[in-house]
């Protein structure tokens, strides 16, 4: 560990690192730990890792890196899968700045390194919750707000949609406060901007009253037609709170479609099971019913991942995931054809296939790209969470990346749009196509806030 006026290896003798409240780490094990993300098949070893003791540390090191043309990437808990947050320059680890400063009646103020699980647990005793909680919550605010953060609650919007204000360090080292009414262009670019326009240091996010209990209904289908019909019926009624689809034994004989729904409620007003499940293609009487408290419910996937990791080392598995937004008019076709064409390698030893549905009008941030309108207010998020064993080798990852590109091209031909947390190889031309009419604006803003192009090189967006 080096503190104070260290010298950055390989630079001129006068290239002294500024004094820091935190620590700049040069040790090989620390750098190696920051060289991979959740995909586990790419490696970029940084020259140094900053564990900031203050926002001023982030500013000082961004200024230093700008002067010396050193790329910079912020790292939360590294849950992207294709090197989006990796760099051979400086990695800034969010987790050393993780305070939750304020829990107010309708908002929270927290550092970017705080996780959504920590925020949910801090807000819970106040009877509050963030309105949009992803299925897995061991994710930092700074990380998901740079990407999207899509929950199973289909009326909640994304995590981007509940943000009131951000503090951001831009590529010049300046700390900028931005919101829908102040520095709006920067605010809208940073939210879902893959770290290209600034490093989030603090976020003010909305809170809403939390229901105390959760009733779950699990339905199983042997065919896709009934599954999609019931999914559409349930979300359009708006009587449940969360819904998602998953596939058991995809691509095999006896493949099962599974629909999970959850309804948030208070004990004095429990849901009527028969009413919620009325008129479905499968009998509501066959549903598996579960009960839970709210906080254990939202933390259950974190618990399940911990159990998977303890049982099989799941976090070390190679995970070349594929995730795409689909218009409602094409979702059933794409998902049915894709799932029926999967083989065991496509899913892997520890993989999953998931489908979320969301109301388009709740997804309001312009950098979160969605399919073009097709007359429906619903869009679908399909995820193939491939997870092969840790010893799968580079050939396996390469084959899955080729598969992902093929799936992306098929989805794009049907109006689909990539959700870029995952593993599709993209170049500048792909990014221009992805952002469409927004691209010229983003290019101008990039030159303004990151004039030397040092921020977050992993996606290759402005290469």
Query: How many strands, what sense, and barrel or not for the largest sheet?
Result: 8 strands, antiparallel
Percentage of residues in helical conformation: 25-40%
Count helical runs. Answer: 14
For the biggest β-sheet, the strand order reads 15-12-14-13-17-18-16-19
Give the integer mean of the pLDDT values: 94
The class by helix and strand makeup works out as alpha+beta
In quaternary terms, these chains amount to: single chain
Rg for CA atoms = 22 Å
Instruction: Report the end-to-end length measured between terminal Cα atoms.
Output: 33 Å
The number of strands is 19
Large-scale geometry? globular
Which percent range describes the beta-strand content? Answer: 15-25%
Low-confidence sequence ranges: none
Report on the architecture of this protein.
This protein has 463 residues and is of the alpha+beta class. The protein is built from 14 helices and 19 strands. An eight-stranded antiparallel beta sheet has the order 15-12-14-13-17-18-16-19. It has a five-stranded antiparallel beta sheet with strand order 5-6-10-8-9. A hairpin with a 5-residue loop joins strand 8 and strand 9. It starts with 22 loop residues before the first strand and ends in a 14-residue tail after the last helix. The model has no long low-confidence stretch (mean pLDDT 94).
Secondary-structure map:
Layout: E1 23-25, H1 28-33, E2 48-51, H2 55-67, E3 72-75, E4 90-93, E5 100-103, E6 107-111, H3 116-123, E7 128-129, H4 141-145, E8 163-169, E9 175-178, H5 184-190, E10 199-206, E11 208-209, E12 213-221, H6 224-237, E13 242-248, E14 256-265, H7 273-276, E15 288-293, H8 294-298, H9 300-312, E16 322-327, H10 328-340, H11 344-347, E17 352-359, E18 378-385, H12 394-413, E19 417-418, H13 428-435, H14 439-449
Parallel strand pairs: 2-4, 3-4
Antiparallel strand pairs: 1-2, 5-6, 6-10, 7-11, 8-9, 8-10, 12-14, 12-15, 13-14, 13-17, 16-18, 16-19, 17-18
